From TrEMBL:
One of its GO terms (molecular function) is DNA binding. InterPro entries: DNA-bd_dom_put_sf, HTH_17, SinI_DNA-bd. This is Excisionase family DNA binding protein. Residues 4-48 form the Helix-turn-helix domain. Pfam families: HTH_17.
Length: 130
């Protein structure tokens, strides 16, 4: 069983050490006293924060880029270049292209992690500016 010191818990939660000690003394955060220090079990910390053990924080982006006045050939070039740049990218990234030939509108739909989505948006931006 993994245990944390009061200092480690304070650092993990972004709290002052005295605040964590008060939580322990008030009984809000279970801990065991070893000598002059408290030790907080990983499971008790997870229950206190309301996060499952081993949970990682994840952020995702949903973006729609609309490009007006783009001819079919340019649209094909943009979609080919973007999809080619995705080789080897995580499976959690999804990019879709919707083209309205009559209006010459292209919509690029990007769903995925922040950095991967940002990379796709940078590529689209560079291709549109050419």
């Amino acid at each position: 069983m993994e245990h944390y010191t009061v200092e480690q818990v304070a650092s993990l939660l972004g709290l002052h050490v005295k605040t964590v000690r008060n939580y322990v003394r008030d009984g809000r955060l279970p801990a065991v006293r070893i000598g002059k220090q408290y030790r907080i079990a990983k499971e008790d910390l997870a229950a206190f924060t309301g996060t499952p053990l081993g949970a990682t924080r994840r952020a995702e982006a949903s973006s729609i880029v609309q490009i007006d006045g783009i001819a079919r050939g340019d649209m094909d070039r943009v979609s080919t270049m973007v999809l080619g740049s995705l080789a080897g990218r995580p499976h959690g990234l999804h990019v879709e292209f919707v083209y309205d030939e009559e209006r010459e509108h292209l919509k690029v739909i990007v769903l995925g992690g922040l950095e991967d989505s940002a990379q796709v948006l940078r590529i689209v931006d560079a291709l549109v500016r050419e």
